Amino acid sequence: MLDNFLIRAALAGVGLAFATGPLGSFVVWRRMAYFGDATAHAAILGVALALATDLPVVAGTLTVALAMAVTVSTLAARGWAMDTTLGVLAHSALALGLVAVSFVPGARTDLSAWLFGDILAVSRGDLVFIWGGAALVLALLVWRWQALLTATLNEDLAHASGLNPARERLVLTLALAVVVAVAIKVVGALLIAAMLIIPAAAARGLARTPEGMAIMASLIGAAATLGGLQLSLWQDTPAGPSIITAAALIFALSASLGRMQRG
Question: Which of 90, 191, 192, 263 satisfies CB 3.0 to 4.6 Å to 40 for a cystine?
Answer without folding.
Answer: 192
